[in-house]
Amino acid sequence: MSEALLHARALTKNYKLGQVNVPALRGVDVDIQAGEYVAIMGPSGSGKSTLMHILGCLDRATDGQYILDGSDVSNLSRRQLARVRNLKVGFVFQTFNLMPRLTVDENVALPLKYRGGISRGERKQRAMKLLDRLGLTDRIGHRPDELSGGQRQRVAIARALVGEPTILMADEPTGNLDSASGAEVLATFEELHAAGHTVVLVTHDANVAAHAERVITMADGKIVA
Fold first, then answer.
1. When you count CB atoms within 10 A of the terminal residue's CB, does the N or C end of the chain come out lower?
2. Maximum alpha-carbon separation in the chain
3. Per-block average pLDDT, block size 10, for the chain (225 residues)?
C-alpha cells in the first residue's frame, strides 16, 4: 500500500446519457502526499471536477481503487462516504454555499453540529478561533449577504477547516471573485499550506494553478502532465 495520503489507481467514471456511456475519467492514477499543495488543472470537460468529487468522497468511481489516509474507500456506501467526508475532508466551492440565515460563526460551526458529540460551546469556540485566524473577527454576527465575496470565501475556508480535516479541497475557489479578492483567497491557501495543511485546488486558470507547488493537468478524462 502506498504511503501517500491520497492514493488512486485506474480510476474510471462513466455517466449514462440514455443508452450511451459517457466516460468522464479514463484510468487515472494519482498520489498526493501529506502537506502538499496540488492544483488539478484543465478545461471544462477535462474530468478535473469529477476527479475532485471522487477524491473528496462526494462520488464513487465506476472502477478503480482509492485509498484515503490508509483506508480503502472505493466501495463504501453513501452513508459511509458522508462520514468520511465529515471527518477527513474540508470543501471550498466557487459559490461559497453558505447558509443565508445563519451568522458567520454559525456557518463555520455547522459541520461540527452534524458530526455530533461536540458541545455547542466547543463548536462556537472552535469557530471563533478560526475566524480570528482568518481575520474575520469583526464579521462575527453578520450574515453572508452582509459580506464581500472575499470575506464569504474566507468564511467558507474557516468552515472547511473547523473539523480539522486531513485534506482541504477547493473547486474553482476564485471563480466568483474580483482579482483583488481572488488574490486574497489564494494568499490564504498559501498560508494554510505553509502551516502544514494538505491542499488540492481545482481550476481552469493557469495563473491560479501557478500558486500551487505541483500542477496536475487533465484533458479528456486523463492526466496528461
1. N
2. 54
3. 84 90 94 97 93 94 95 92 92 93 95 89 94 92 94 95 94 92 93 95 94 96 95
Handedness of CA 100, 101, 106, 110 (dihedral sign): negative
Model pTM score: 0.90
Integer Cα distance of 100 and 178 in angstroms: 21
Pick the CATH number of 35-46+78-223 from 3.50.30.40, 3.30.70.1060, 3.40.50.300, 3.40.50.10300: 3.40.50.300
3-state secondary structure of 168: strand
In the chain, DSSP finds a helix count (H) and a strand count (E) of 7, 10
Q: Are 31 and 38 in contact (CB under 8 A)?
A: no
Reduced to 3 states (helix: H, G, I; strand: E, B; else coil), residue 199 is strand
